[in-house]
Amino acid sequence: MAENTARAEPSAGSAASPPVVVKKYANRRLYNTESSSYVTLEDLANMVRLGRDFVVFDAKSGEDITRSVLTQIIVEEESKGHGSLLPEGFLRQLIGFYGDSLQTVLPRYLESAMSGFAKQQEQMRRSMGTAIGGFMPFPSFEELGKQNMAMLERAMSLFAPFRPPETGQTLESLRAEIEQLRRELAEAKARRD
What's the CA gap between 39 and 30, in Å, rounded? Predict the structure, then answer.
């Protein structure tokens, strides 16, 4: 189980290497052009876990279908029965944002939130590694877990405007964050036009 939870951040060396090109054929088979072999969605999921970047192209049309393949991987992972990573409420809210005016801002925000979460997770791993020889490693581990949960709850509360603010979060800070999102949306629209 521990190997399933280990995630590798792309290192500076892997960022310089080009992404692996995978071709998807009409028979739904995925062909890794780097290793000259057929691969499965599980193989691609493992590449993500190892921090190895890839792109997927439709073999016939040449269209980049990486996003849809990544979505398929998420669906596969969610259906394995190991417990869901994406809560039903989050999925419903996410679906509700399609076609919404915040649709252009949401991807950047979610990417930023996930990046922050990954950094805290890495910090937690380092703390655990250094604390293994210590007397009580769990207080710092518990504190990082609380920070992660607070960050995710805050992120979700930003996208549920009719819920009351979480305790400890002022109405002014919510308004400031909403105003910031509005400015980013206006900037994105101005760049698009």
Answer: 5
